[in-house]
Amino acid sequence: MRLPQAQAAVLEAASATESRTVEELAAALDESPTTVTRAAFELADAGLVAIEEEAAESVSLTDEGERYREEGLPEVRLYRAAIDAGADEEPVPMGELLGRAGLDGPAVNIALSNFARKGYGRIESGAVAATPDADPDADEEAAALDALAAGGDAPEDAVEELERRGLVRREEGTVRSVTLTDEGVTGLMEGVEVADAVGAVTADLLTSGEWRDAEFAAYNVEADAETIYGGREHILRRTANRVKDVLVGMGFQEMEGPHVDADFWINDALFMPQDHPARTHWDRFALSDPRRIDDLPEDLIERVRRAHLEGVGDDGEGYHSPWDEEFARALALRGHTTSLSMRYLSGEAVGDLEPPQRYFSVEKVYRNDTLDATHLLEFFQIEGWVMAEGLSVRDLMGTFTEFYSRFGITDIRFKPHYNPYTEPSFELFGRHPETGEIIEIGNSGIFRPEVLEPLGVDCDVMAWGLALERLLMLTYGFEDIRDVHGTLCDLDLLRSVEVMH
Ligand SMILES: N[C@@H](Cc1ccccc1)C(=O)O
């Protein structure tokens, strides 16, 4: 029988009467467990060995656990310092003991919370009274740390406590044991010849031309292998791209524009009065340097100013409140991408547009919100608008129904709403697939004449801002947006979440 080197070695090292683990074989053969595992699976495929698998749990020390194993658990160090200072007879001020025990930073709280729990003593009004006959040498958690570090076992309740404290971590693994089958024994008796099968193509093999005569080992695609995570497009980016594809498919063109913009484009062009509470309570992220925009179309400034002061049309009223150009020139991170819609509708971005037109963007916006499961300080907005003659709310609803149905969402709901820049306005809601909760997914409406006339648009424009992250929640069932985005994100989830097309 001819076998590649690793397989021949494993076959010879295996026994018919005693199963040997992959780790034992690897140590005996001075090979890596990966090589032995692979060879064992190939031998098993050929019927020469049997592999038995057993789920096994291993417990290892975290960096913090390792540190305490070397330096002593903080509560034990506090107890020893307390005994040294005579705290078993008379309480000693805490500050003094912390210095003696060499404890500072987070270790102080850790020492204090475990000290009393383990019966090392009491802490009252800033002084420590130590239990005279406590035995720090018999500390079960310290003993467990030592035992686990040495590869041994420790009592379950000690391990649980250490795990709770973040000093050890449990890992699930599989232990594989190999035994020779009858066929394997026969094969061995008949004699095994080592074939020079090549396991991996090297640059040498290729340049020397040796690959022409080499015998290549077959791949075993069923063998267990270490998981290697390659780079991968983030689910949010992937969903953003999918949204773009859907909108392009619906006849929309993409807008682009600055993340930092003048309040003029973010608010004033939208007929948001300068003294509107939203312009302060929206908590904008203002820029201090540069502070203002220089480049604004003078004639548009004038038309917007007049719309704010006097209104638009015969029965227009306006706000009759002061309008300050400098206030409009202030720069901030955009709180919505409707600033882009203003730049495009005004002709500032790509020149004057004739109806019909459809535009969208899927871009970041910034709001000083309080972080929670459904709010981030920055998120992606799916902005969009349609410019055409004779648009109605029916068109708006139809567009959303069409858009969301492309993502399998067929039960969106509408609620009348108020925006200073649209009339009528609607908020959109969808049902969370896991919790069943109705969540807000967007805001929309038909732009008022006070917005459109200064921009020089004389037909209807319906528009919206939808939250990409909420769409993600509805399509994937995420419950906490922080699992997907930001420093608390769940890497395992991001690595393994399935792609939806
Ligand atoms: N700017 C609105 C969305 C919107 C855009 C356009 C028209 C109506 C509403 C928001 O951020 O909530």
From TrEMBL:
Keywords linked to the UniProt accession: Aminoacyl-tRNA synthetase, ATP-binding, Cytoplasm, Ligase, Magnesium, Metal-binding, Nucleotide-binding, Protein biosynthesis
Listed GO biological process terms: phenylalanyl-tRNA aminoacylation
Molecular function GO terms recorded: ATP binding; magnesium ion binding; phenylalanine-tRNA ligase activity
InterPro entries given in the database record: aa-tRNA-synth_II, aa-tRNA-synth_II/BPL/LPL, Phe-tRNA-synth_IIc_asu, Phe_tRNA_ligase_alpha_bac/arc, Phenylalanyl-tRNA_Synthase, WH-like_DNA-bd_sf, WH_DNA-bd_sf
Transmembrane intervals: none
Its EC number(s): 6.1.1.20
Subcellular localization: Cytoplasm
Origin: domain of life: Archaea
Top EC category: ligase
Presence of the UniProt keyword Transmembrane in the record: no
Any one GO cellular component localisation term in the record: cytoplasm
HAMAP family xrefs: Phe_tRNA_synth_alpha2
Family to which this protein belongs: Belongs to the class-II aminoacyl-tRNA synthetase family. Phe-tRNA synthetase alpha subunit type 2 subfamily.
Protein name, as recorded: Phenylalanine--tRNA ligase alpha subunit
Annotated source species: Halomarina halobia
